[in-house]
Structure formats: C-alpha cells, structure tokens
Amino acid sequence: MNTVIDPFELAFKHMPTPAFIIESQTGKLHSINHSFALLFESFNATPGDSWVELCEEANSLEDWQDLYKKIHNGHIDRCENLLRIGNKQVNTQLEFQAMGGFVLACVYNTDHMDLVDAENTLLKFALTESSAGLWIWETDSDLISCSQSIGALLGLPQDKTPRSTTEWHALVHPDDVKKLSTVVTEHVNHCQNYYEAEYRIRKSDDEYMWVKERGRTYTKHIDGSIKKIIGFVEDISPQKTLEEHLRNQATFDELTGLLNRGAAVTHFKKQLGLAKRQYTPLTMAKINLDATNRLAALPMEIRNLAIQTSARHIYKKVREADVLARVEPDKLLLLLPNTSIRDAQTLLTNIINPTDNEITTLIEGKSDPLDFCVGIAAFPEDGETIEELAQSANEAVEIGRQKQLRVVIN
C-alpha cells in the first residue's frame, strides 16, 4: 500500500534553513527538519522536547506563552536567543511565523554575522543607490558597525568610521543632533519597526552633506525590546539644493532677488498687524521704475539689466526694517513700518534723487533715475488693509506718471 506524502511536510523536512515547529499552547516541539537535526548532530547532541528545554533564557511554560502572545499579536517576528545544543550555548537568530495552533521557527546562527552578509541579504536593495551606506547598531553595547560604503560616503577609511552613537553624533550638525537623537530614542523605547530622519553630517573635508537615514529593527530580545537595528544613509544633498531653489523661487523674484508678490503680502500683513496693535504709523510706497516708458522700447536683455540696477539701488537705500518687493515687471512696493508720511517723503525723495556717483552707477546699468516715480499711501488715512493701501499707493503713482511728478502723496 502506497503512503501519500504531504508535499508541504516534505518541503519543510528538506528546507536548507534549520527549522522547527512548536505547539502554540504547550510549547512542545512538534517536528524538526533535517537541517535542524544536523545542527545538533554536529555537537553530538539531540534537541530537547520543548521550548523550555531548547531555549537557555526560558525557565517555564509561562515564558513560552508570553513569547507566543507577542508572536501572535505581531509584536515579534524576529529575535535573538541562546539555544542549548548539547553542552553549548549557541547565539542564534530566530524568525517566527504563527500558523494556527503552531509556530514555525527558522534558525540563523548570528555568532559570525557581519555586514557583508547583511549587504547580500536583508538590505541589498538599499545598496543599489551609489550614495547609500549600510550600518548595524547593537543597542545593548552601543556598537555601530559601518560598511565600506559608509566610509566612501563620508570620505573616511573604514577603520575611522563611527563606532558608537557618541562618535556618530559628533559628525552630525549641531542643529540636527537633538532631532536625530529624539527620533531614534523613540524608535527604541516604543519598539517600533521602522524610522527615518534627515540631517546634515560632516565629511572628512569638514563640509556638511544632507543625508536621509532609514533604520529598521533587525532583531529583538525575547522580551520584545530591540537588540539590533540595521539601516542605511544616503546622500540627498542634490535634493535639498533643489528644494532650497524651489523655496527661493516661491519667495523671491528671480530677476531682482527681492520678495515676490506672494511673499510680500505675508510680510506686509504682519507689519500692518503690528502697527494696529501698537498704534504706530505705517506708510506704503509704489515705485514705478519706468514712468517715462523708456524701458518698454529696449531689448529684453537691456530692460532686465535696467530693472536689476534700479532694484539694487533702491534696496541699498532703504532701512533694515523696511520691506521691498517686486510686484510687477517694472514696479516695486515698499512698506515703511513706524514711518510717518513726512519721513517717508524724505526717504523716497533721497532715493529717487541719487548722488553723482550713484547716477553714474545707474547709467552704467542702463537705468535712469528720471524714470522713477513714487506714490505714497498712509495707514490708516488711506486704508486699513494691505489691499486698500496698495490701491491708494497705485492711484498716487499713476497721478504722478500722468502729471510727470516724482513723488505723490495720496
């Protein structure tokens, strides 16, 4: 009579990784595979009949039941354990899989595990990026092991790479250390599976680079606490440079470097709110850089140069607390906090009537101070909102342009 062999049982028996199956409730070994048996044979020993006999750190059935709860609830899927193999205690890494009334455990010897193994297995995907570097951190001893790729990333020989969190943090930018430490500490304290952080780290040439660090819990103690974390850092400096460029584009006018309209409104509203709370004067000026329509007839390259030159001249003449923005191609808006109409008129008259040296600089930059025309509006007389003040200043500058006046107060 032929016996029907279960293909899954056959696969388990002959899988190359040592493995065993435990009954969930009793902690008894239900079955072992050939590789697990060979592991014991090499020590002239035989496996115990239960988890308590097998595991050096287990003293009673309750220890297994506590572990099983963590496995069943998904809190532990990998941990390190000392297994009793004959009269030896072998440090192993166990991977658990709950299967109804049983638990499958796969055994990996970790006594000789190194970064080469890790690079070729768990995090090989991370090393497909040339800018990535792999590390392993043992939380109990605070030992950090860095791959050669970390050394290449930081420009350091491998024996000079950080070996502890203290040495690692010594390379992190002082403004970023606390943030990184908080993220990692929370990961460890809450026994989380994954974290990531962005920070600046110093290279061997003393220049800082932006990196993204991704860490993942690699193994846990039997109580569920984290034993090892494995992760990588990658260079994201180009990405950060692009982000900074995009932020600047969103905030600053590309031609003149002044605030653009959107950013100006934000600053203007803050200053107006301050003036309202403190009952201080505030004026707004609209500056037309082409009141004579001279620039309109120039080629674009020369017109842009003239606008740059005019904007630079005005920016140098305003005070530190003043806010200057380019709100139209040939028009600027200037907010003067804590400034009366009379003081604003004096300041702006000085701006549009430059010295001889300033006139020379303006003309060399294709600008002409005779093109300038200014309209002034005051809070609260000409408006109580930024929009109302801007409209009043715009009306004043239009009157000036039409009547060929240099400074007009609304």
UniProtKB/TrEMBL annotation:
GO molecular function terms attached to this record: diguanylate cyclase activity
Enzyme Commission identifier(s): 2.7.7.65
Domain GGDEF: 280-410
Keywords from the UniProt entry: Nucleotidyltransferase, Transferase
PAC domain sequence ranges: 195-248
Class of the enzyme per the UniProt entry, highest EC level: transferase
Protein name: Sensor domain-containing diguanylate cyclase
Organism, scientific name: Marinomonas arenicola
